[in-house]
Amino acid sequence: MRGPYLLLLIPALLGAGEGGETTPPGPWRIKTVHPTEAEARRAAEQRKKAEAARREARRRAEAKRAAAEAQGPNRKALVAAGRAGMPASVRSAGRWPAARASTARAVSVLDRAALRGGARANVAEALEDADAVWARRVDLGAALLSVRGLSAPRLHLRVDGLPIGPARFPFYQALALQLVDAFALEQVEVLRGAALPLYGASAGSGTISLYLERPRLRAKDGAWQLFGLAEASSITWEKSVHGAVGRRDATAAFLGAGSWQDLDTYASTQGDLREAGYAQGHLLAKGTVRLGPGQLHAGWRGSWQLGAADPALCTPLDCTRNTLRALQIADLGWTGRLGAASARATAYLVALTSVRERAYEARVAKSEDSALSGGVTSALTFEATAGLPVTVGIEADLDRLRSAASITPAEGAGQGASRGHLPPSASTGTAALFASASLSVTERLRLEGALRAERTWREAQADPLADLPEAAELSLLASAGAAVLLAPFAQIVVHLERGRRPPTLDELSGYGLFDGAYDLPNPALTPETLWTSEAGVRIERPAYRIEVFVWHTEIEDAILRRPAELDGARTILWGGARLPYARHLNGDPVWVDGVEAALWGRLPFGLSLGASGTAAVGEDRTQGEALARLPPPFASVTVRKGFAGGHFLSARILAVDALPRLAPLERLDPRICGRPEPGCGPPDGFVTVEVRGGARLSRHAYLSASLRNLLGSVHRMPGSALPAPAPGASVRLSVDLE
């Protein structure tokens, strides 16, 4: 009976007070209390403060997200680095977005795990794992790269977002690849296809971006590599020291590394071996300071290489006795937010130096080439009210080139100075304004567009061989693309590009022995116009991914290297060999068609399958025949098995149809053909099998191994190829201390 009495007590406990009124009559009376005017104001102020706090929290989160995106997609790594007191990995140019499937471009990405698992000795070997990239070896660790059938100067190279080369001097790109520390590679991105509005006139076939890892917070770090070539041996050892100190608003870091390699290599196309070796050193210093709504960053990176060879084993024409090469990169920039937009701006200096000594007959030839490139790159990205992401930016650079050569008798008496391969002193420059935008028209259609206005100029001072007039040219480069979503897992992408490429200084005034011939200047060259189109299909599921792209590229007024005459003669006697004269000329249109496909999928028993293939055909209408030096059709299949603890085992089969077709100059070179007849052709194709393995030895040590049974893609020097791939074993072992 106590239940009803307790119910009757409830109204009494609630009571009726001032400023309130009771509810209508019922079983019991409950009072509803209304707040006073002062209490209502206080509550409203509290709600406003809470809303302001939420808006500020959202703004800070958005700022952090934008800063992480500007520095790279791996935000967790950046946060971990900040907790460890290391400088944030600030990049002067943002990496490619992680959601590559949303763009109308073909992109290949090699991450740290893929690079480490290959036990590669240099950057050129690491790029062998990227889709549609063909590397033609020209020196120890150096290579001339080709993407979709075209190579430098129609291929753009960047290191940590900065243009390297400079891009208008293709030979320096090969040297830069040799000097970049392969052990420090953190990520490699290959944009396959033209990207003229984004990177300039030198990105007609694609762009290769190399990102180097930041110093890690450890007192000691290093990597050792031991490997052998066919009928030769090689030992590479590298030791580096890392360190970092930091506070909340400022950090600093340093890195030092050194390596030595001693190996036997092919000295000529006849398979002769030559003792050779080189030492490399790398230094890095960088720091960051918080400045306003962003971060100020500065860095300097230097790499040096000193090489030597045994003169007793040199051939009369190919005897590079000593080399000294250096690459230095300095940058100063700011990354952050300006209102609702994310901004970045970086000023940089790139210096590249090459000194070579060559001996032939009773003379010693010494050449010195240097390039100094300075510039600025900046961009501003913002979201318009209609949800249209727009990026606008300014890029400018000035390149200064010096080239000299001297010939001295072996006994040291007398000296004759001559012009180097390039003018003694020359300058080129570029200023560009670009904009890009993307728009989601519907849920299934996304459009992209980019436009670039680029002005270039050049001058050469006191050139005794060719009167290279000052010139300034304005070019407009444009692109458009679309991605059509057929299903949540499948889409079609199309892309169109148009641009003009002015002739390089090498093409205008290159002179002397270079690339298997004797070059003559041609200051009368005109720009070439490039048109490219591509279409592709992407299908991506959790268990598999498929990509197929086809493309067509046509170059009007193409600049090509052709046989030439001087005073009625077509050859010159040089170093005991007779070499053909060569000159760059504007020719009829050149076209290249190609297809590339890639497949990745999961198999039973924890296996994964990866396959890719590329084939390109082209025509040189000036010669009326197939285009020379196109990469051969090649395909690879890889099966990989992963184990717990970070261990893996994989097998890769690479099949190459045939080495590139010889160029007209190569057919005249008796060192390649054995006879000066046009019918001389390249060797047949080959197949190579590679087995890789990786094992984590401890928390800070990782072991990588690679075994090949055939080496067939080695080209000793530009314009030459080995008579046939020589079968043999290649074993490589690498230990990386993290």
Characterise this structure:
- Mean pLDDT is about 70; it is low at about 1-35, about 70-95, about 215-235, about 265-275, about 410-415, about 675-680 and about 710-730.
- The protein is about 15% helix and about 55% strand.
- It is globular, with a radius of gyration of 31 Å.
- The protein has a 22-stranded antiparallel β-barrel. Strands 3-9-10-7-8 form a 5-stranded mixed sheet.
- It has 2 domains: about 1-35, no CATH class; about 210-405 and about 415-735, TonB-dependent receptor, beta-barrel domain (Maltoporin, Chain A).
- By secondary structure, the chain is mainly β.
- The protein contains 10 helices and 39 strands.
Continuous helix count? 10
Distance between the termini: 78 Å
**Number of structural units classed as domains:** 2
Name the CATH superfamily classification of the largest domain. Answer: TonB-dependent receptor, beta-barrel domain
Q: Considering DSSP H and I runs of 4 or more, what fraction of the residues is helical?
A: 10-25%
